[in-house]
Specification:
Layout: H1 5-10, E1 20-23, H2 27-31, H3 35-40, E2 50-53, H4 58-75, E3 78-84, E4 93-98, E5 101-105, E6 121-124, H5 127-131, E7 136-140, H6 146-149, H7 152-158, E8 163-165, H8 167-179, E9 188-190, E10 196-199, E11 202-208, E12 217-223, E13 226-230, H9 247-256, E14 258-264, H10 277-288, E15 295-298, H11 304-316, E16 320-324, H12 326-338, E17 362-366, H13 376-381, E18 395-398, H14 407-419, E19 423-425, H15 440-450, E20 452-458, H16 462-474, E21 489-493, E22 498-503, E23 508-512, E24 515-516, H17 521-533, E25 535-542, E26 549-558, H18 567-586, H19 592-611, E27 616-623
Parallel strand pairs: 1-2, 5-7, 7-8, 8-9, 13-14, 14-20, 15-17, 15-18, 16-17, 18-19, 25-27
Antiparallel strand pairs: 3-4, 3-21, 4-5, 6-23, 10-11, 11-12, 12-13, 21-22, 23-24, 25-26
Helix pairs in contact: 8-12, 9-15, 10-11, 18-19
Length: 624
């Protein structure tokens, strides 16, 4: 009996990239071959299929095919490559690659640090994805926070492929794609917890988790070498409005065997458990009770459970709710369309109509919990909001904690609100905010359930990753099986091993306005220089014949000194520049670059000697 290409298709074993032939004449000869020896004996075949000749029966051929396929699979290695989210908070993105298939988990933004002057957003470097875009089978998104979805529009310009997420997550991604005019070009595929999606050789299972946004999931990614669990951002909240995290499924996976786990490290420094969101609901009710003034609440726009609590509390106390802030308005629109927000008819009113209502019947839900300059709360505090003005007695509830780096901005708003006579409630002791990330005891529970062979802590700065490593060791993990990498590190895994194998191109790309990547380290260095020391421009017109000075040099400064109060210094600088140019003329130096360099060096030396400052100096030469 002869098995041909047709049979190979029927067995589901056709591989264009495996041009091989296996030939045995009888059943006894076949049984003498081990899978390894069978592979060694394979020879190229022109039609590019697996072909078996002269077998006794179909099942025998089928079994051999399966063994050969398994052996070929074992030769490949799974690569896990974090392109962001290590040694930083935010910009989360991880690549999983096996053979000719690749998927991406999350695609978030980072936010600029203090010395990133003029930078609006920080996104991952997509070079590796662009170079391997033929392998890409899809993006899988754990939830809809900016640090997990914010870079998607920028990625889709480079490597357009399907995006898989839950309903709320995809609703928020759609808004972003619409802003970038990409909504019609990108395919969004919606799933629910429990769904399993095939993407090349990967099978991605969606698992419900608790977080500070609705519809968050973890992923169990079933690969040819084993299962990888990626927790995403999570906490364990038994009383969550959308049900407790699916610990049972994680436990089942642990019993079946998990090759590796990549877990959120954000709150690993905190002992105990993260409090339930219900605690905030109780605190809000306490603040609303017996308050006869207008209430303004600011929180994260994405925290739909919190916003639901604010609206429910307002309904109980007979107050109407108005919303201000573009991101808050967009979020409410998506949540209501998808049924994630339960609101009685007539509760939400237009902001313009609140002037006709008594103050004790109004709640305004606002953006601005992080002190953002253009946020609604900021504009209210500094009298630039067109519809809302803060008055004495207004109760301002800040239901959020300041993200590291935003403390000064938040304090600035709080001080201004107090100056206007508002009653500002923001202390942590009031129970107005709880984290959406797991603390140490919750992380231990996940480690105990999943029991991974290998562990890679992610989503945190170096201290978070190191502390999470130590926590895993207290749960019995061998330190040799815990791996801490950097952005671009390549983790290679087989069914029994995990190794760090080099790096790929990765890093930070800066977004400034509509420009992406055109602001690099040199531009940032110049901006920092300008911000710290100011600038001096030296303008001079030289003769084309002999290089002598025709007019100038004129000295213009910005951010260095106040000219009207420093005329003596300005005259001295003009003299130094004149002497530098004349010295070049005497030495017969006519090259503009050399003349500019001389002017810069002379002025820089003089300024540092007399003022101890080092402004940027820009000579501008015109030849007449």
């Amino acid at each position: 009996m002869c098995y041909t290409t047709v049979d190979a298709f029927r067995f589901g074993l056709f591989r264009k990239q495996t041009p091989r032939v296996c030939a045995w004449k009888d059943k006894n000869t076949l049984q003498a071959f081990s899978p390894a020896k069978a592979i060694q004996g394979l020879k190229p075949l022109e039609d590019g299929c697996l072909l078996v000749l002269s077998f006794w029966d179909t099942n025998t051929a089928k079994n051999l095919f399966a063994e050969i396929e398994r052996s070929i699979v074992l030769a490949e290695k799974l690569k896990i490559i974090p392109l962001g989210g290590l040694d930083e908070i935010g910009k989360n993105i991880t690549v999983l690659e096996y053979g000719k298939d690749m998927i991406v988990v999350d695609c978030g933004v980072g936010f600029p640090e203090e010395d990133m002057y003029g930078v609006d957003l920080v996104i991952p470097d997509f070079s590796y994805l662009v170079a391997n875009q033929k392998k890409l089978r899809g993006f899988f998104i754990t939830h809809g926070h900016e640090d997990h979805i914010g870079s998607i529009p920028y990625a889709m310009r480079e490597v357009n492929c399907p995006i898989h997420g839950t309903a709320m997550t995809n609703g928020l991604i759609k808004l972003k794609l619409e802003e970038h005019k990409l909504a019609d070009k990108v395919k969004l595929i919606t799933h629910k917890p429990g769904d399993v999606v095939k993407a090349g050789c990967f099978q991605v299972e969606f698992i419900h988790v608790n977080h500070s946004i609705a519809d968050a999931v973890a992923f169990a990614i079933h690969t040819p070498v084993g299962t990888v669990v990626m927790t995403g951002d999570f906490k364990i909240d038994p009383t969550s409005k959308d049900g407790m995290m699916d610990l049972a499924r994680l436990g089942e996976l642990g019993k079946q065997g998990v090759l590796a786990m990549l877990s959120d490290s954000t709150n690993v420094e905190r002992s105990g458990y993260t409090p339930s969101e219900n605690l905030v609901a109780e605190s809000l009710d306490r603040q609303f009770r017996n308050c006869d003034q207008r209430i303004i609440v600011t929180t994260f726009a994405s925290n739909m459970h919190r916003i639901q609590s604010i609206i429910a509390t307002a309904q109980r106390h007979g107050r109407k709710v108005a919303v201000t802030g573009r991101s808050m308005e967009n979020m409410l629109k998506v949540a209501q369309e998808l049924g994630y927000l339960k609101v009685k008819q007539g509760t939400i009113v237009d902001l313009a109509s609140i002037k006709s209502l008594p103050k004790n019947k109004i709640v305004i839900v606002s953006t601005g919990s992080q002190g953002e300059n253009m946020s609604a709360l900021y504009r209210m505090a500094f009298n630039t909001h067109k519809q809302v003005e803060i008055t004495a007695g207004d109760r301002i509830i800040i239901s959020a904690s300041a993200i590291p780096g935003n403390e000064k901005a938040v304090s600035k708003i709080i001080n201004e609100l107090y100056r206007k006579g508002a009653d500002v409630v923001y202390e942590k002791s009031e129970g107005l905010h709880v984290s959406g990330h797991a603390c140490q005891e919750e992380l231990k529970i996940i480690h105990g359930l999943v029991k991974p062979r290998f562990f890679i802590p992610i989503h945190g700065e170096q201290r978070h990753l190191q502390i999470h490593s130590k926590l895993a060791q207290t749960m019995g993990m061998n330190p040799k099986n815990i791996f801490i990498g950097e952005i671009g590190s390549v983790f290679e895994l087989t069914a029994k091993s995990c190794k760090l194998k080099g790096t790929v191109t990765a890093g930070k790309v800066f977004v400034d306005g509509t420009g992406v990547g055109d602001v690099g380290s040199v531009v940032l260095r110049d901006r920092k220089h300008l911000a710290e020391d100011g600038m001096i421009v030296v303008c001079v017109n030289l003769s084309a014949e002999d290089g002598s000075i025709i007019t100038g040099p004129d000295i213009i400064t910005r951010g260095f000194i106040y000219v009207k109060e420093s005329e003596q210094l300005m005259d001295a600088l003009q003299g130094v520049a004149t002497e530098a140019i004349e010295r070049c003329q005497r030495k017969n130096i006519r090259d503009w670059s050399a003349i500019k360099s001389t002017i810069k060096n002379d002025l820089s030396g003089y300024l540092y000697k007399t003022t101890k400052r080092n402004p940027m100096i820009l000579p501008v030469i015109s030849e007449i």
